[in-house]
């Protein structure tokens, strides 16, 4: 018979996967749903399919790392596994209370590290490699998108500007009683290609989410031997699918509506860069945060767009002379860069760097360092608290024996 404790562990794993599905679906397919290219039902179906594919392929490496390489799998007794999963669920609660997308990956690793320290058996080499990538990945995400924003974004906007014409994107014809979609009379070729691109990138994002997040729900149970790796991936992917078909409808509304402040092209750049980075880390077996990378991509892309008003040599010369700071309030210069600069749509003729109007790229709602600091603090705080709480739990209640 299945023990009550195992049922509790399975319930917590399903809860974690359910919430991952609810949040990740909005991130992956919000642009497609918000622009009217894809329905919520279609987004949920694609999320379920590609999250399973990501977990079944690349995600195995992350499950292996979290289930037996940070600490020996022998420490994952059933009670210890449930304890670790409890802290992952607690991270989701903290995320909801503070309105900050706390990283379940980082929190889960923190809880596992706390278990290893309490037991005196942790692989510091593996742990050091993971933490190193946690520091490097957001920096890479920021600078890749900063370079794109400064040097490529205006050209990409001209070449791949995504516009919608009036009327539906597709119409349906029938062969016998079987319907099949065809582009409507009002749909032009550019709109059709861009719409397909939006959906394809959403599927890629869903693949990345599955690869990085499946382990968060089931790695301790797989490490304990209570679930086989195939069973664990199917359980996590099924829970993600349930979340995609239920609570994700609200997140899709939120993300789709919020995209009025983030152009569709910018959202797609953020998705491609962050998903590529996380997929690469998942291939290496590194549990990393998709939310952290995506947020740093948004900040980097906006900062890069805002810096187009100043040439590098001019900024350096002004810094040497001590100029620029006093002009920041008037929008004529300054060191504070605007994420809202992404909302400025370039003309068909791209202006050179240093020639663009600062008023077009910097709005009065400048990037708030205090808000960013609060987010980063919580990203650091949640895994730290998870590790400390896990250590105290397993130090005084050695349920891993």
UniProtKB/TrEMBL annotation:
The keyword Transmembrane helix applies. Keywords: Membrane, Phosphate transport, Transmembrane, Transmembrane helix, Transport. The keyword Coiled coil does not apply. GO terms for cellular component: membrane. Coiled coil: none annotated. GO terms for molecular function: phosphate transmembrane transporter activity. One of its GO terms (biological process) is phosphate ion transmembrane transport. The chain crosses the membrane at residues 44-63, 75-98, 131-153, 192-215, 227-247, 259-278, 376-400. It is found in: Membrane. It is a multi-pass membrane protein. Pfam families: PHO4 (PF01384). Belongs to the inorganic phosphate transporter (PiT) (TC 2.A.20) family. Potential transporter for phosphate. This is Phosphate transporter.
